[in-house]
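hiii so my PI (J.) wants the whole complex modelled not just the main chain, which honestly fair. so below is everything: four entries, each one labled with what it is. i double checked the lines twice but i was tired so who knows lol
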Amino acid sequence: MDDRKQLILRAIIREYIGKVEPVSSKNITGRYGLDVSSATVRNEMSCLERMGYIEQPHTSAGRIPSEMGYRYYVDYLMEKYRLAIREKQAIENRLDERVDKLESLLQKAGEILSELTNYPSIVSEPTMTQKRYRHFKLVEINDTMALLVIVLDDSSIKNYQINLVGRLKEEDYKTISNILNDRLAGQDISGINSGMLPDWGYQSLNDKLVMEDILRALANVVDQDNVHNIHISGTLNIFNQPEFKDIEKVRGLLNFFEQQKSLQKLVESGREGISYRIGEEVPLDNLEGLSVITSTYCVNGKPVGTIGVIGPTRMDYSKSSTLLEKISENLGISLIRLMK
Amino acid sequence: MDDRKQLILRAIIREYIGKVEPVSSKNITGRYGLDVSSATVRNEMSCLERMGYIEQPHTSAGRIPSEMGYRYYVDYLMEKYRLAIREKQAIENRLDERVDKLESLLQKAGEILSELTNYPSIVSEPTMTQKRYRHFKLVEINDTMALLVIVLDDSSIKNYQINLVGRLKEEDYKTISNILNDRLAGQDISGINSGMLPDWGYQSLNDKLVMEDILRALANVVDQDNVHNIHISGTLNIFNQPEFKDIEKVRGLLNFFEQQKSLQKLVESGREGISYRIGEEVPLDNLEGLSVITSTYCVNGKPVGTIGVIGPTRMDYSKSSTLLEKISENLGISLIRLMK
DNA sequence: TTTAGCACTCAATCGTTTTGAGTGCTAAAA
DNA sequence: TTTTAGCACTCAAAACGATTGAGTGCTAAA
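here's the output for the full assembly
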């Protein structure tokens, strides 16, 4: 692939991304640094087609990039997109606003990403590995109910209602809190899971019942922690994409967006850092003509989650990936602040 | 409007609801108890059209019901739909399953409604009026943070993290809990709202700061309580409706579904009990050809929220309203159980 | 190696014709 | 007075055919 062919391939892709119409030889001559006649371009095009980088919808039409063409573009030809000042500011402002809940932060990140790219976006909840218990406190509420307060080492507080089988005396609350603190403080939360509750040997049946209720609540912490919901925003942006004029295509994609499992698969199969998956490379049968760009976001240098955009194969890879980089970076920063 | 006209109008509507194609005179003769020739039916139809109950898309087409026609049908002609056993069971089973969270329950109600009707559904969160504080407890977490536990008279427990400005001694926690219990237990929660925090006269600046943080948390209880989110499910069902072949229509409706405000308006404007709003009667500009059936659901005989379906004007009013009645009744029952 | 020129292709557009479902009206039958 | 058979009429939708024009591939000269 010589220089001029590269120039032409890039021109075709840029043009097609913008107009979403087959690109003719005449269209790109005199631009994109191509000071040759359309006939010359046609010869090159014919060659590029034989090489598999572009294709022709029908004989008398222009060319459109093939998936292989996009891949080559992303790997070798793509120029860096310069963020507009207002884009940069929008990202920083929006992700800097004080938010109290993790969900809201992820939601916001997804929204701004969708807004700026015009594509639907997905954000996976962060996997915070290695959380430990720091402190326990069982609080009296009334005769039949207590509240278990758990502080984790990232300072987050969780609490669970415990229905009491028998009545507890005031000192019992302290005793139980102490037992929990002695046994579990500093331990990894995955130690207690619903698969197998430990047997600590109890003095009475009542002790056993109460403590097992509590342990079940602790198991809940882990279980809930392992459900990594995936948020999706800007789904209606697909209506802005000319390739989604067909109602069945829209339906298929929107339907896909409602399936947590498929989204999960999509997110989990992405590589660390920025990952481009183009057309067939997207690990989803029954959805064609789509590309996915994902980026992992990091806390303290470690990737903990994924954020990405979904668009037609002819999406604006350059702009999207730059925005994605910036947003995932800022998301990481906000996340650290949120957890402090 | 004589008997035969009613018979014919009902026949046209039933037929149109099923086939979604203009109904011809020949089509309904010999059925629906119409033992007359098509010519006779034609005469009657022509009359019904002059009266405004049906209309003709173009000269050589059959008739379709007008909005006025649907209104007449709903008010006078509609026959009661008999629930299939599997429908009844599906509703009872699904709403009987133990759920712990209010949101999940509403979600479920919406889902089953959408599933059985094939239309999108909306469910508003219940307005629980007149909640009172029952009990307070301020719990020590660490030097910089405390947890405020609030028990309401419906036994629900809420809790808020309080960031401490200064350090508190162990007895302070008890003192503050006591003050709150003395002053507020038994009071209506709307007494403390973010509009105006009470000034209780404090001994020191620190006391003041701590207590005001707490009061702000209490105000939150009310504020959060006043946000009545509206859940929507089964949105993709609109793809099953032949009137939504047009992409722009789909887009408009899906877009509408994302606007909490509009949904709120829709829910709040419904009357108590079952309410049918047909076409123009729906209080939403820029959305045409839609009908909405809503039903209030009750706790202890009092309507506390709304559940409903949204469909094309030619929706199956009979089936939908019967399902809606049944589901809203069961939702009320489950709700009472959930709060106990 | 490049390019002007020309024949060729084919989707898309436009206009015309055909088709058939369904009506309205009329005049005879009930 | 009401019902109905019969027939002319209407019009959207389908089928067909002709036209257009953007864009190509190829060839022969620059």
